[in-house]
């Protein structure tokens, strides 16, 4: 009753025919795209790259269809839509040029070396440069956020177009949906740029050399591990460990940790728990054995955080006897590099390849942690109200759901109604009612 039913459609293989049928279900492409994207991310994490690429192509096909439908809402309209995304010292702008309700062009622009610029400054600079040479300026330009220089930019565009031009931030409707789609395209472009950068061995070697010099390491760090903690309001705290070897991600050696011994939101203690569990495995492994190889020590540990996180991490490594293991923390706010025992941070140049590599590490660790955190929250959200109730096994649970249909309906039931379910009885019904009320 709340949209199309996908029962019987295998999430393991979305055939082209299935996608085509689902595209005809007007208004539900967003749900289909989200489901495909979720499976694409899961396939990538499982190192099923061919399947992930096939799912990615289907996502793009659906989104192109969605884009065309959204354009229909702009019949006879002329406007430009500027989607924006940022990653480290690079940003991207996806520009949809719509003329008479049709997409005239869909261009992507990568903005380099914007590390010292705010998002607002980077987008403002792009608008000035692009429209200074643009052959066509529409009467309306949609941007993703408010710009402080909007008035000056409007005057500039009106002077170039010789008529009225409006700069607006869409808040709802097709304009907002199209803006979100453009922003997602820009983000995907930056991901592809990152992969290309990592594949450039010359830049990678330079980055490792610069990093060794900045941290006074004996040589370029061949194996780097980066750690991040993800938590929302103190629930489902998780930690992630990503591994880069010779500047390249080793996804098969990524690890994730569910925080067990820390109550509430405590970033310092959570980092310590993750490091204790990770390095204890290496120290307890039999020398020369497979387990020691699997958990071999890195040449450098990077912590997502500043001075406090670094101090807590150093304390744990020292407690484990790993006094000589190099480590540092990358703080998000100013992209400063903190090292143990040093009061002043190391500030790498904005154009430094080492900084770019560290940002890639940090962003990958954050993505991996967030993905795991999202999975745990989704799993918790789908748990039944009866999952933790003693005496209600799978058979009784099925009997209750067969009668009431859902946990929500069960919560509204009286004790007598629950007791009337075959196999429940009065005593268990009272315990179930008490559990639901609590």
Plain-language structure description:
With 438 residues, this protein is an alpha/beta fold. It has 15 helices and 12 strands. Strands 6, 7, 8, 9, 10, 11 and 12 form a 7-stranded mixed β-sheet that branches. A hairpin with a 2-residue loop joins strand 1 (79-87) and strand 2. Helix 4 (119-133) packs parallel to helix 5 and helix 7 (201-214) crosses helix 11. The longest helix has 29 residues, at 353-381. It is flat, with a radius of gyration of 27 Å.
Q: What's this, in brief?
A:
This protein is of the alpha/beta class.
Specify the number of helices. Answer: 15
Summarize the amount of helix as a percent range.
40-55%
- Described by the principal axes of the CA atoms, the overall outline is flat
The N- and C-terminal alpha carbons lie at a distance of 30 Å
Mean pLDDT: 81
Instruction: Report the biggest beta sheet as strand number plus sense, adding barrel if it closes.
Output: 7 strands, mixed
Structural category: alpha/beta
